[in-house]
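quick one before i forget lol
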Amino acid sequence: MFIPKNHAARVVGVVLLGLFICFVREWVKPDVAAMRAVVRRLGLGLLDAKQVRGVFSNSAPITITCLFVISEAQAGLTKEAQRSALHNYTAERWASLRSTQAT
């Protein structure tokens, strides 16, 4: 452990506070913020790899991860549909402007 045991709770509190702020401010996606917090705790020696792997023995974290993946895919499809609609509107508008100028 790189952090003395008497300071470990404070360091974990700071990491969790930073994670909460990232969630509220939405600086990065929630899954990225959570992974950064885990990596920070691994890097500081507050977690070991065995503890991190032990999380996946429960199905809840895997379910939450799948929900992140599904929501990101749905958001990507929504953005693509919006881009397509904007492109179609712009193309139609441009075509109508060109036809009125030609006559």
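fyi The CA atoms of residues 87 and 93 lie 10 Å apart.
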